Automatic annotation (TrEMBL):
Protein name, per record: WD40-like Beta Propeller Repeat
Stored PANTHER family: PROTEIN TOLB, PROTEIN TOLB HOMOLOG
Database matches in InterPro entries: 6-blade_b-propeller_TolB-like (IPR011042), WD40 (IPR011659)
Annotated organism of origin: Nitrosomonas nitrosa
Family statement drawn from the similarity comment of this UniProt entry: Belongs to the TolB family.
Leader peptide range in chain numbering: 1-33
Gene3D superfamilies to which the protein is assigned, alphabetical: TolB, C-terminal domain
Pfam families: PD40
Keyword annotations of the record: Signal
Length: 368
């Protein structure tokens, strides 16, 4: 594999030498990212495709989504014990899943799934047959109205539907104290009477009615935080739990910018103004800056950037490699970064991990 060499995995000291050898972790050398990210390793390679990894506060567990077998062509949710390398599936295995999160202190996982869709298995079979036929279609996210947000224990048991509302309910995360959940939903298109203009817009684009919501961790006291006819999604809490970062699409759906707001929906502030597709924002644990992905260098070339939390500085480029680099997250101690990239020979999405230079980030952003 060109430009890849063996290197001990520095991100999790609890991993044994035996596990390191079994994982066949790979390192990437690239001058463009070396200023911020070093000791880069590829965390996944046996799965068909992988994306969106998130850590528990104690850094003992990582939850992520992956397609692993031909029986189900859609993502399922997996939990990895970072001390012994054991991986276990926590989603039911039927239908589609997305957007997982691990509780900051309890043995609980949050994810969205369509397994209660009566046609879930039929849709799985149809997708398998479509792929066998060789049919190709452009990538497009599926805003399936059967997506619900579920809570489950680490074995996938005690599963509980927290939303129980027709419409796309997904992109959920717990607050740092585990008491609140922020999520995205277009439920109002199914539960409210839309204007003629809104109904026509929703028929054309189901994402147009997606807004950010917040609720108690048990699914009660749901409150809508954004009120637009464009896609507001991907919410994450700030490290202190006081604000939410998310991305807002333009009316035409071709651009997106990063925004933040208080958890009650007040003080909505635009952070980026790149006029491109900027999305997948995530706070650094220091609460000094936000990392995100943008295609400012080309329609299909997504790179990681950082920006100060107030959006007062020019965003700073982090990665520099053709293809997709996105969905970045920092480890809870802020010393490492994990993200999804297709920088593999097969050009399939996999997880990459590296040591993060927080001091350099502050220096380049001129933030104290």
């Amino acid at each position: 594999m060109k430009n890849f060499t063996q290197l001990p995995f520095m991100g999790f000291p609890l991993l044994s030498k035996k596990l390191l050898a079994a994982a066949c972790l790979l390192t990437v050398t690239h001058a463009g990212a070396a200023e911020f990210i070093t000791e880069v390793t590829q965390l996944s390679d046996k799965e068909i495709r992988v994306g969106e990894a998130y850590y528990r506060a104690d850094m003992q567990w990582m939850v992520y989504q992956a397609e692993v077998t031909g029986d189900n062509p859609f993502y399922q949710i997996f939990l990895k014990n970072l001390s012994n390398g054991k991986v276990q599936q926590v989603s039911p295995g039927i239908g589609k899943t997305t957007c997982s999160w691990v509780h900051p202190s309890q043995e609980k996982v949050l994810f969205s799934s369509t397994h209660e869709d009566p046609d879930a298995k039929a849709k799985m079979i149809a997708e398998i047959e479509r792929r066998k036929s060789g049919e190709r279609k452009p990538y497009a996210w599926d805003y399936d109205e059967f997506y619900e947000i579920y809570e489950a224990d680490f074995t996938g048991g005690k599963i509980k539907n927290l939303t129980n509302t027709l419409g796309y309910d997904a992109e959920a995360s717990w607050s740092p104290d585990g008491k609140l959940i922020a999520f995205a939903s277009n439920r109002r298109a199914y539960t409210e009477t839309l204007s003629e203009e809104e109904a026509a817009l929703f028929k054309k684009d189901p994402s147009s009615m997606i807004d950010i919501y917040i609720m108690n961790a048990d699914g009660t006291n749901v409150k809508r935080l954004t009120h637009t006819n464009s896609y507001d999604g991907g919410p994450f809490f700030s490290p202190d739990g006081k604000r939410i970062v998310w991305r807002r699409f333009s009316d035409n759906g071709r651009e997106a910018e990063i925004f933040t707001m208080n958890i009650d929906g007040s003080d909505q502030k635009q952070i980026t103004r790149l006029n491109m597709m900027s999305w997948a924002p995530f706070y650094h644990p220091s609460n000094k800056y936000i990392i995100f992905s943008t295609n400012v260098h080309g329609h299909r070339n997504f790179e990681l950037y950082i920006v100060d939390v107030d959006g007062e500085k020019e965003p700073v480029r982090v990665t520099d490699m053709d293809g997709f680099d996105g969905l970045p997250v920092f480890t809870p101690d802020g010393k490492y970064i994990t993200w999804t990239s297709d920088r593999t020979p097969e050009k399939k999405g996999h997880l990459f991990h590296g040591k993060w230079n927080h001091k350099k980030a502050l220096e380049r952003l001129a933030v104290k």
